[in-house]
Amino acid sequence: MTEPTFTQQDIEILNEETLYSGFFTLKRIQFRHKLFAGGMSGTVTRELLVKGAASAVIAYDPTRDEVILVEQVRIGAYNPKLTSSPWLLELIAGMVEEGETPEGVALRESEEEAGVQVENLRHALSVWDSPGGVLERIHVFAGKVDCSLAQGLHGLADENEDIRVHVVSRETAYQWVCEGKIDNGIAVIGLQWLQLNYQRLRTEWGS
């Protein structure tokens, strides 16, 4: 595997200012960086949405060969000119707050969003979410669940969450990815990972 040419030390931060601080933070950063041809770039200015870290869970039942999806509204998918719905089918997920671990968030969100206990939690992969303008590292886990216990409406009232749980077969979930019915990045990545690894999970967890 080819390693990246440069490291974290090959960027020079010239100026950083906070433009807005609310649910997320928006910063303006000016920086220079080393060039492939040698020397340094000119000053690059970028607005950066700082979100931090998040955890997502591929909640899989190896016995029933089913996966838990959650449905909730996402303002980023709202556009009245589109025919698609802003209510998206997603993996269980949540932000990692200060003092929390990604693993702890994965377990907590599984209870809050789907009412299930996760066993055999294992790290699947971690990815940057749109790093050209967003600072967010998403940690994706796979966990063993009993899908027969997953149903109903969930979410925290004080966070205005309104979440519906769906239990679907692994094959159906992957077909929805292929058809574009599931079209948010983390769910697509997680369900593709599951499709590649479900046989190993069923062997390790028992089916």
Instruction: Bin the strand percentage.
Output: 35-45%
Shape: globular
- Taken in chain order, the helices and strands follow as EEEEEEHEEEEHH
Largest sheet: 10 strands, mixed
Number of strands: 10
H/I helix tally: 3
Using the CA coordinates, give the radius of gyration: 20 Å
Between the first and last Cα atoms, what is the distance in angstroms? 35 Å
Structural class: alpha+beta
Low-confidence stretches: none
Mean pLDDT: 92
Q: Provide the helix percentage.
A: 10-25%
Oligomeric grouping of the chains: single chain
Task: Give a quick summary of the entry.
By secondary structure, the chain is an alpha+beta fold. It has helices at 102-114, 170-179, 185-205; strands at 11-21, 25-33, 44-61, 66-73, 87-90, 92-95, 119-128, 134-144, 153-154, 163-169.
Q: What would the keywords be for this entry?
A:
globular; 41% strand; alpha+beta; 207 residues; 3 helices; 10 strands; ten-stranded mixed sheet
Secondary-structure map with pairings?
Elements: E1 11-21, E2 25-33, E3 44-61, E4 66-73, E5 87-90, E6 92-95, H1 102-114, E7 119-128, E8 134-144, E9 153-154, E10 163-169, H2 170-179, H3 185-205
Parallel strand pairs: 3-8
Antiparallel strand pairs: 1-2, 2-3, 3-4, 3-6, 4-5, 4-10, 7-8, 9-10
